[in-house]
Structures are given as C-alpha cells and as structure tokens.
Amino acid sequence: MSERDSASPPHDTDARLGDLFENLPAPAPQVPTADTSGPVPGSRRAAREAARRAARQQQAGEPSLDQSGTAPAPAASGSADSASDARPAPVAPRAEDRASAAAEPVSAAEPSRAPETTAVPIARGSRETFIEHDADATRPLPRVSAPTAASTARTSPDEPAVGGGLDDLFVSGDDDHRGPGAPKKKRRKGCLIALIVVLAIIGGIVAGGAWAWSTYGDRISDAMGWGDAKDWEPGLATGEVYVTIKSGDTGQPVSAALHEAGVTKTADVFYDYLIDEGIAVTFYPGVYRLQKKMTAEAALAALQDKENKLENTVSVSEGGTIKSSLPAMAETLGLPLADFEAAVADPSVYGVQAQSLEGWLFPAVYTFDPGVTATQAIQQMVDRTREALDAAGVPADDAQRVLTIASIIQREGRTDDFAKVSRVIENRLAIDMKLQMDSTAQYGYGSLHEGVVSSSAEALEDPNPWNTYVNTGLPVTPIASPSEAAIKAAMQPADGPWLYFVTVNLSTGETQFSETLAEHEQGVEKWREWCRANPDGGC
Question: Around Cβ 113, how many Cβ atoms within 10 Å?
C-alpha cells in the first residue's frame, strides 16, 4: 500500500476526482513569449485570478483548489470536534496548477501563508511612484537610485518623497551606472582652475590700473572730465581786482596773470579756452578792472571792454621785480622806459639807504594824474612801502633787513605758510646755516621764471651775492616786492623747530616742513613723485 493510501481512507468522491484529473487532456507545452502582462506570482493579482478560477470550477462542478493546489476535504459525520480534527485528503493538482506551483515555491514551514508585498519607489520626473512587490519573489526589480534624505522627507505618511538634495546636482550621471558599494568618482577640478585663472587676470588688471592711475591719474581725470572743474561756475564773480597786461603779452602770459590776480580758477583755463574755441585776440597793454572767480569766457569779455581799461593806471604785482614792472609803467603812462630806469638808479633820492630800490616798490594799483613823471610815480610807490613797514611795527633802521626776509617769504611760500617760512629763515640764520633758497639763486642768476621749487645747476652754482646756496646769511638786497602779509610774517615768525620745507604739490601749494634732513628728503621724494605724475605742472 502506498503512503498516500495509508494516510487517509478512500472515499468515493476522491475516486471520482482522481478519475476526473486522469481524464483531463495533457496541457500543451507553453512557449515563452515576450508578453509581460501576466501577474507576478504571489501578488494580489495572482490571488484574484486564482479565486476566479476556483469560482469557475465550482460552477462547472469541479472542486475548488486552495493556493497549495489541494481540494478541501468534506466534513465527516459526527461532532464538531471530530470535524475540526479531520484532515483534507490530498487531491492530484491540475497540470496548470502544477506549473504555477513550480514557478512559485512555498515554504514548507508555512504552506498556507499569503506572500507579503512591499512598496518600492520608482522615480518619475521630480516625484516617486510606489508599486507593490512581492518580498519573496525571485524576479529582480529594476534598479533605481536611492533617494537622499532631502528627497524622502514628507509632511505626511501618504505624501511621496520629492526632489533631491543639493549634492545630487553635483553628482555625475555616471554614478547611476556604478554598482552598489563602488567608490564615487572625485569631482573634477576644472572649475577651480578656471576660477584661479580668472582671478589672476583680474588681479593683473587691477594692479596695472593702480599703476596707471598713480602715474597718469591727473591727465586721465582731465581727459575724462573727472575731478574738480578747471573753470569757475557762472554767477560766482565778486569783488574787484586789477590785472596788468604788458606789451607783447599773448594768451599764455595773460592766462597766468588772470590766475595770479584771482580772476580765473586755474593758470591755464583761460589759454585753453582760447585754443579750444579757436579765438584770435590782440591784448593791449594797460591795467584792467576785473572781478574774482570769473569764468574764462567772462574774463575775455571784460578784457575786450574798453570801460574796464584804466587810464594813467599802473600796477606792481606781489612778488614782482623792478625789471618786470618798469616796462608796463612806461607803456601805460606813455613815458619812455629810459625815464623809469633813470628814476630807480639812485635809491638815495627817495631816502633809501641801499644799493637798489628792489623791494621798495610796493605791490598795488596806482592811478596818476595826467602829466606825471617817472620820478613822481616811483616816489609814490616807495612812500606806500614805508606805510606798510610802519603798520607792521618795523624800526626804520631794520627796514632793509625785514624787506629782504619778506621778499624771500613772498617768493617761497603761499600766504597760509608765510609765518612758517619766516621761522625756517630765522632758525637757519641763528645757527649760521646757509638759507639755500632757490628764489635767491634764481634772482641773482636772472632766472626767476624757473619756479620756486627747483633751479638749474648753473643758477645754484653761480657765485653772485644773492645766491644763498653759495653765501651764508641774507642776500645783499630784497629779491622782489613783498606784500603786507609777507612783511607781517617777517616780523612775527611762527614757533617751531623747522629747518627745511618743500612744496610737495605745485597745484595746491601744499608744503611740508621738517626738522631733520631725513624728513626733508622724504618730502623731496613726494615732490618728485608729483612732478613725474604732472610733467607739465611747472617742475
């Protein structure tokens, strides 16, 4: 007897079922196709289709099979206890069920347990869709990238994870093709190298721009129209000043004279205006009444207006000399130049105990009566100087010395620095140190046009009695006509230990005062830097 026969008694129903299965036609061999629409073994769809097959079998009069492929045994007669202890008789499975069972093995320990399903996310665009998958199925699922922490964050359990972290933006697409556990590729360094190159180029441009600006900043500003305007704005004109035009003066010296008198803002704006506008003009010698802070255009109009030209009027400029002033006097008054040269030849005629009247012609505007002589005109100028000396409290016997110091102050410094320049002169005289003033060397050499900062080697080395680079002490006479402010500074020098000074910016007149030679040399280097940046600045 077989094992199966000894396990359960035979029944007529079982016999009939056996005969039925034996009489079924053999299933045709299944040919694999590319159709993937069939249910995944163990899935819910497979369970539903099994249930439908069982229902069709019951309608056909066939016993239904459970998921294990066996038919339930009929309940035996007797009590409920005996019915619950009855074991179902084994029934031969159909051929199609045997094939399904072969494809879907069931654990022997749990023959009737339904397969578990697991939700697996599949990425779709920026969101993820979850499908159910049999946890025990042997068919591999398509591989998907593991979501990051940012992408799996959800506000509710039912909301699918979306997006990805910022790190995903910098991961190469090749990472998806590497196997699990494979090391990630290192990020490329191309962007870093490109950034370094760009920064190096920018650094070079900035460095070059800084050098160009430090060297040519003033000229660049002028060309681009940056910085302070060179001309005054219209409507600012005020006060009254007198400008002397000498015989033969052209645009450039007239432009300088206008600036000296405070008419124009810069020394070259008037001349530049004539050039830019293509204006040809003839200037007639004489004294003209103008205003301070006039535009270049307004100044030209005033010079061409005959009402502004003063008759029998002459002027002596601050820092001017006898040689520079006499020609304009002669032309304005209609007298021969020789008359004025003879008038200044003997200082004693005017009560001046000196070898020259230099410094005694007070800088101012003078109007004379018709028929005035050269001697009368010079006498009036000397008398005006004595008034200024008396106002400053200068003793009569010290007048020549004070005028000499004042004349150096007038030529060397700007008004705000007069008292400091006076102190430097006094400090050097006190220790018998050479004054070494360029203005004195230039006067003695006849080259006052060179400027107050630098002089030619010839002027500095010429052994004339005015050259304070060669001689110790004051020059033999004043070197120019000092103003009241310069005379006052000569009498009241500022307190300080300075022995040196140098103008470091000729445009603004900024001057550095120093106690030691080392400090002074630093100031000289500043002046040289300014001159290199302003080659046309008058150095």
Answer: 11
Tokens 């339904």 -> residue = 114
Tell me the β-bridge partners of 123.
Answer: 128
Q: For the chain, 539 residues long, give each residue's pLDDT as a single digit of tens.
A: 444 344 444 444 444 445 544 555 555 555 444 445 566 666 677 777 777 887 777 766 655 545 444 444 444 333 444 333 444 444 444 544 444 444 444 444 444 444 444 444 444 444 444 444 444 444 444 444 444 444 444 444 444 444 444 444 444 444 444 555 555 555 556 777 888 888 888 877 877 777 776 666 656 666 665 656 889 999 999 999 989 887 778 899 999 999 989 999 999 999 999 999 999 888 988 889 999 999 999 999 999 998 998 888 888 989 999 999 999 899 888 899 999 999 999 999 999 999 999 999 999 989 888 889 999 999 999 999 999 999 999 999 999 999 999 999 999 988 999 999 999 999 999 999 999 999 999 999 988 765 555 678 888 999 999 999 999 999 999 999 999 999 999 999 999 999 999 999 888 888 999 999 999 999 999 999 998 988 877 67
Helix (H) or strand (E) holding 402: helix 399-412
What does 267-287 look like in DSSP terms, one character per residue?
SSHHHHHHHHHT----PPPEE
d(CA 489, CA 48): 119
3-state secondary structure of 227: coil
Structure tokens at 378: 């010079």
Are 391 and 484 spatial neighbours (Cβ–Cβ below 8 Å)?
yes
CB 517 within 8 A of CB 487: no
Angstrom distance (rounded) from CA 254 to CA 433:
39
pTM (whole model) above 0.90: no
**Would you call 345 exposed, middle or buried from its count of C-beta atoms within 10 A (0-12, 13-18, 19+)?**
exposed
The label of the residue with tokens 């025990």 reads 136
Contact 520, 469 (CB under 8 A): no
Q: Which residues pair with 512 in a beta bridge?
A: 502
∠ CA 523-527-528 to the nearest 5 degrees? 115
Q: What is the DSSP string of 7-32?
A: HS---HHHHHHHHHHHHSPPPPPPPP
Residues 176 and 246: their CA atoms lie apart, in Å, by 93
**Distances in Å between the alpha carbon of 141 and those of 119, 122, 138, 230, 263?**
12, 10, 9, 84, 95
Q: What is the DSSP string of 196-208?
A: HHHHHHHHHHHHH
Angle at 286 (CA atoms; ends 375, 478), nearest 5 degrees: 50
* DSSP H/E element including 411: helix 399-412
Task: Encode 450-474: b = buried (16+ Cβ within 10 Å), e = exposed.
Answer: bbbbbbeeebbebebebbbbbbeeb
Q: How many CB atoms lie within 10 A of CB 127?
A: 13
